């Protein structure tokens, strides 16, 4: 009964999911979950400083998110919602690892988590704004920026012959 009420509230809060089947809701959730994987992993790494541990915690976070998927409201930022789960999973993992030499206290973990959530919480919006800015650049500059952050070695062969540095090429136009 409680589950039905939660599902109805979930559907009513977003008119696009009102007529959605449970399979469609699960598919939409999976797409959102897949899109946030890099953010979750980066967030957890920033807290535990160990990639293997962070991967384990991220997997636990994914399980927790899946189990609680019906409690997610589309009116809420999915990134923020998922990051709260990652924070709780990280705290649980660190609590169980207290025997390790380095363990942060709860207060410090709270501060780190808050700062990381600020950074990663609006990442999606910042990426959209960056893409919009890049789309306004002339094609040549757009390509240089992409090459700079994807393949710098290829860049030197493609910029104009008079440009000695990437900075010169990016600021000269």
From TrEMBL:
GO molecular function: sigma factor activity
Keywords in alphabetical order: Sigma factor, Transcription, Transcription regulation
UniProt xrefs under SUPFAM superfamilies: Sigma2 domain of RNA polymerase sigma factors
Gene3D superfamilies: 1.10.1740.10
Domain RNA polymerase sigma-70 region intervals: 36-99
Any GO BP: DNA-templated transcription initiation
Protein name: RNA polymerase sigma factor
Organism of provenance: Symmachiella dynata
């Amino acid at each position: 009964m409680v589950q039905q009420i939660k599902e109805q509230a979930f559907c009513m809060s977003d008119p696009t999911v009102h007529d959605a089947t449970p399979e469609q809701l699960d598919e939409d959730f999976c797409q959102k979950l897949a899109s946030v994987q890099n953010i979750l992993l980066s967030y957890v790494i920033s807290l535990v400083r160990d990639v293997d541990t962070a991967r384990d915690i991220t997997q636990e976070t994914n399980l927790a998110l899946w189990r609680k998927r019906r409690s997610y409201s589309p009116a809420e930022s999915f990134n923020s919602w998922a990051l709260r789960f990652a924070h709780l999973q990280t705290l649980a993992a660190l609590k169980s690892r207290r025997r390790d030499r380095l363990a942060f206290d709860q207060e410090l973990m709270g501060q780190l988590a808050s700062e990381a959530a600020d950074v990663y919480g609006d990442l999606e919006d910042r990426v959209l704004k960056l893409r919009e800015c890049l789309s306004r650049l002339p094609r040549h500059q757009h390509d240089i920026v992409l090459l700079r952050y994807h393949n710098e070695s290829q860049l030197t062969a493609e910029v104009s012959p008079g440009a000695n540095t990437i900075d010169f090429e990016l600021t000269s136009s």
